[in-house]
Amino acid sequence: MFTFGFNKKKEKIRAALEVPKHIAIIMDGNGRWAKKRLQPRVMGHKAGMDALQIVTKAASDMGVRVLTVYAFSTENWTRPEKEVKFIMNLPVEFYDKYVPELHANNVKIQMIGDHCRLPEATKDALFKAEEKTKHNTGLILNFALNYGGRDELAQAMRMIAQDILDAKFNPGDIDEKVIADYLYTGVLPAKYRDPDLVIRTSGELRLSNFLPWQTAYSELYFTDIAWPDFDEKALQAAILEYNRRHRRFGGI
Ligand code: FPP
User: What does it do (predicted)?
Assistant: First the structure.
């Protein structure tokens, strides 16, 4: 439970809310945010990185256990080379500018996705962040970088097939738990692998190949706020809405 105050008819009300344990965010709208300000698109990504720091700290304070952020999809390579290069450099900047503060706040950094194709400097910054924070016990900030849900399922199937060939188990042993273990999110604590709440900013109403297996029963929240403008207040609004939902998981 998390308690926060908000104003309704100038009256301060305190509400006890259930905080989602795993929040996943599609950080959309950086380009449009920049364009509106007559700035190059990449300035939107830079502002998006700053927003990420603010939201991570807010989520950590509220008691969220895992925050998965869609930083770069397997489809984003089709963007102009300059933009891809800029985004790939953000983890390097993030490591120097923000990881020390997150580390001090007990945040643990992890990542999911296919990291083979990432530039060396990008991988290096992420590995360093993982290494530095690996003993932290607070919120897990989980970067989805070169992540695609279909790619994740394909690689899980390849690994399962290989392990069957290696006689580690039989096809009949494959159940939902085995599959979940082989997905990229298998690196997360088992009880927090599936997001309780998925937030997508900037008005688009789709999931864009983000965690298709894991979001089977997630609550979806869409907001028109562009990602660089998303802040603690916006996160609280999403959690408030989450608390209005009745999660039945197929039951009644
Ligand atoms: C989508 O907005 C956003 C991205 C593809 C990149 C998101 C990356 C960040 C917010 C920075 C993350 C930080 C680190 C350290 C990796 P868009 O460009 O599609 O926006 P548009 O729909 O307005 O064009």
Answer: Catalyzes the condensation of isopentenyl diphosphate (IPP) with allylic pyrophosphates generating different type of terpenoids.
The rounded percent of the chain whose pLDDT value lies above 70 is: 94
Which residue's CA is minimally distant from atom 10 of ligand 1?
48
d(CA 57, CA 99): 11
Pick from 74, 87, 110, 222 the residue to mutate for probing ligand 1's pocket: most ligand atoms within 8 Å of its CB. Answer: 87
**What's phi and psi for 47, nearest 5 deg?**
-65, -30
Q: Read off the pLDDT of residues 157-213 as tens digits, 9 standing for 90 and up.
A: 999 999 999 999 999 999 999 999 999 999 999 999 999 999 999 999 999 999 999
User: Measured between alpha carbons, how far is 194 from 99 in angstroms, rounded to an integer?
Assistant: 25
Binding site membership of 32 for ligand 1 (Cβ less than 6 Å): yes
Distance from the CA of 47 to the center of ligand 1, in angstroms? Answer: 9
Q: Shortest CA distance to 201 belongs to which of 32, 4, 66, 60?
A: 32
CA distance 63 to 7: 22
Going from the Cα of 27 to the center of ligand 1, the distance in angstroms, rounded, reads 6
- Alpha carbons 17 and 156: distance in angstroms, whole number: 36
Question: Mind listing the pLDDT tens digit for each residue in 30-79?
Answer: 999 999 999 999 999 999 999 999 999 999 999 999 999 999 999 999 99
CA atoms of 146 and 151, how far apart (whole Å): 10
CA pair distance 126, 168, nearest whole angstrom:
31
* Confidence (pLDDT) at 11: 45
Residue 146 — very low, low, confident or very high, per pLDDT cuts 50/70/90?
Answer: very high
Tokens found for residue 22: 């795993």
